[in-house]
Amino acid sequence: MKEAFIKSNFWIGLLAFSVAFPIFIVGSSWLLPGSELWSHFAQTLLPELITSTLILLIGVGIGVSVLGTVLAYLVVMVDFPGRKWLEWALFLPFGIPAYVLAFVYLGVFDYSGYAQVWLREYLGIPGFDIRSGHWAIILTFILVFYPYVYMMARASFKRQKVQMIEAGKMLGAKPIRVFWKISVPLARPAIAAGLLVTLMETLADFGVVSLFNYSTFTTAIYSAWGDFRSIEVAAQLASLLVLVSFFLIYFERKARGKAKYYSSDVSHLKAYNAKGIAGWTIFFFVFSVFMLSFAMPLLQILIWTSEVFSVEWSKRYINYFSSSGILTFLATVLTVAVATILALPSRRKSNSKTLQILIRFSTLGYALPGSVMAVGLLYGVQNISLISIHFGGSSINHILFGSVALLLFAYVSRFLAIAFNSSSASSEQIKPVYEHSARLLGASRWRLIKEVYFPMMLPGILAGGLLVAVDVMKELPATYLLRPFGWDTLAIRVFELSSEGLYERAAIPALMMVIFGAVIMLLFNKLDQEKF
Q: CA nearest 334: which of 430, 431, 405, 252?
């Protein structure tokens, strides 16, 4: 039995190490001697990159924390008109890729957009440059990423101890005081977790910052790789993002401490009843956020689609959709399979500390941009080829570069954390007595997994799979760098058209992506409702 566990742990460790391979490779780029190109980047671009990235992170972080927390509190703690349907409708912006929302707002509010044309011609208001400054890009990120904080904070508010809330009411505290003094401190770990994911997504973004011509580390990575053809400098720049990500994760863990997310008396929580003007004011606020983040962009995409459908639509969109669907399906299945294997409850006690650290390290990929994953894999394959040639072998670049296998590997490494956290949360609810009973009855390990673990972990596995599917469908940087020839996806098509200012034509693939994302989020919301 002991030998079996050792052998099993070896293969699990190898699997975890393989998933974390791009992270190790990116870090190893500093072992190479410095180059003139890196000196040029460090002296001329690095200060600007650091400043612009920090401004973006601070602005987006404050915005999503406030908006996501307030929205979550209102839909959980306050009974207002339209509350039931707005509670699930606020999930829908999660299904819109950030770069889709960006090109919609650019198409509407850019200098040549009809909003500014109307302001100039009918109101005499001079035009403005939406691309100048930081406010427009920060607002775009806030509207598309607030669901991360909203999702986490909403779950925390639903699980808060009713005695503490009722005690505040009995002492005469008004709803706003209960919110600041009781609800928010209790939900702080969940808010911090949602904020962490948001900051990681902001760091990882390439589409929005490119459309707004905003310089960040991600655009510099693409410049180093695409313009200067230096994979070493790209990897070194990516490693700085890894360092930033590690600091963010560390601070989030410190903020969370030993806080718990659950409580057994959530079902007795009674919402405040907001009547009259107060209730309708809250409704219009929440509804405005929904309109700006989902309904209005969707309506604009539908208008543009109707205008250019007869001209733009062709059979090639079937290829875009099939490429996106195949990659999404394969990546989701692979990611969920790896996550389930790593999260099996019977491994927790048998795992060594080294293996546990390695498993957690393999889930850090979500903290890294898709560009980092792509650069790490390209750099790793190139080094392996050089080693192979040095020892008399042949290069493997022509086999792996531009292959579906390399792209799927990047997806798994990037999005494993989503599926693992969801599966692990389900596995931790399985009591050890189930395993002990099955062992006493002579059940094999495979039968234990098939008939006990898997059915009990299934809700978490499905929820994680749905979130992975949405993220894979939206992923742009890794797909842009690693996609095989002829495997253009809907995301690639949207980015190529919108980057050229062809917003009307980009509406057709964008609409297909929004519909797909909305359906996935509705399924996720259904699973989420069944938990409460």
A: 405
- The pLDDT tens digits for 347-381 are 555 556 777 777 777 777 776 667 777 777 777 77
Distances (CA, A) of 42 to 48, 49, 119, 236, 237: 10, 10, 43, 11, 10
Structure token pair of residue 62? 């404050």
Residue 273: which H helix or E strand, with range?
strand 272-273
List alpha helices for 212-346, DSSP H: 217-222, 231-256, 276-290, 296-312, 316-343
Does one domain contain both 217 and 331? no
Q: Which of 130, 128, 362, 372 is nearest to 242 (CA)?
A: 372
The rounded distance, in Å, linking the Cα atoms of 76 and 349 is: 37
Number of structural domains the chain divides into = 2
What pTM value is reported for the model? 0.77
d(C-alpha 520, C-alpha 431), whole Å: 31
Q: Phi, psi at residue 315, to the nearest 5°?
A: -65, -20
In a domain? residue 232? yes
Query: Domain span at residue 408?
Result: 1-29+313-488
The DSSP code for 483 is: P
Per-residue pLDDT, averaged over 417-430, amounts to: 71
Question: What CATH number corresponds to the domain at position 269?
Answer: 1.10.3720.10
